Structure formats: C-alpha cells, structure tokens
Amino acid sequence: MTIRINGPDPIMFFHLPKTAGMSISYWLIDNAGGRWFPNPNTFGSKHADEKRVRNWLGKKEPLGTCVMVIRNPWDRCVSAWKYWTRRDLVKPMEFDEWVYSDWKLAEKQAVDYFLPSTQPVWLKYENLDQDIKWFEERLGKEFNSLESHNSSKSDKHWREYYTPELRDKVFERHNKDITYFGYTFD
Q1: 3-state SS of the chain: helix, strand, coil percent to 5?
Q2: pTM, whole model, 2 decimals?
Q3: Average pLDDT, the chain
Q4: Which of the chain's ends, N or C, has fewer CB atoms near its CB within 10 Å?
Q5: Does 131 have pLDDT greater than 70?
Q6: How many other C-beta atoms can be found within 10 angstroms of the C-beta atom of residue 92?
C-alpha cells in the first residue's frame, strides 16, 4: 500500500510487490501515524507509482521523501509466483510457465515507479534489518519487529527454481533494476 506520513517533512512509502510492503505499511500505520493514501479502496492505490500519487495529491501538497523497499528480482519473481498461485489469484502453473506468462504486477521495476527528477530512499529487502533504521532515525521510533503479512514461504532457496533460460528471461524483464541496483543471480 502507498502510505503517507504527514508532518513538516512528509514521507511517502511506495509498495513494490513482494518486498515486505504490507508488513512495513501496517507498522507505519500502527506506530508512526501513517495512513493509507489515498485510501485502501482506491483503484491502483496498493502499488501506485509517483505519477499517480502526484495526481491524487494535487499541486498544493508536497510529496515529501519517497521511500521504497527493493528486492533481488529473481527472488521477487519466485515469491510472486508462490503468492499468486497459492492464493488462487491465477490459474495453477509451474514456475517456468509463470516466468514466461504475462505477470504484469510482479514485472514492474522499482526504477519505473518514480519520475527521473525524484531521488527516492531505497531500502533493500536483503538488508532490511539494517536498512529499516532509516525509518527509526527519521521517525524517532524503533522497529522492534515486523509482523509478517502476505509472506510467501518456500521449501527451497529461490536460485533452485531457475534454469539458465529462466534466469535470462527474468533478467530481460528486470534489466533496469538489476543494472541500477547491482543485483546478480549469484
């Protein structure tokens, strides 16, 4: 969900799918005065990009500091497949079929959420225990623990799902994020 924390220097938390976004969103609401933006029932608000949020805000209200958690795209793809297929949100399919299917929501790249002039704060899912300290310092509140929401538990490491061809296909779809953030498959 897109979460807004008002104040002299507002924060807008953008939720990239399968990056602990729901867990962070609920923590921000429960502990830091965050609120759904614009509201949880507005079409497109769960994974809204900066352009959509700016349209909702209008010209008078500042966007504030933009924050997003990013995740290794190969890992995120496995998590998205597990989430969507286990919850019957798509027809049952094997992982290789998912990679070659039209999985638009999981395909959107983090760098495409923001306008070129915006300099967001990027927190890495892989380092979340450390990176979450950005919120602690900014808000003066401790993240003691995040309650898990929408978790996609796995019985094996994400790398084990990939053949060289599947690895390359995910690279094709997520090359901007992989290059920009320096992710590797190894």
Answers
A1: 45, 10, 45
A2: 0.89
A3: 87
A4: C
A5: yes
A6: 8
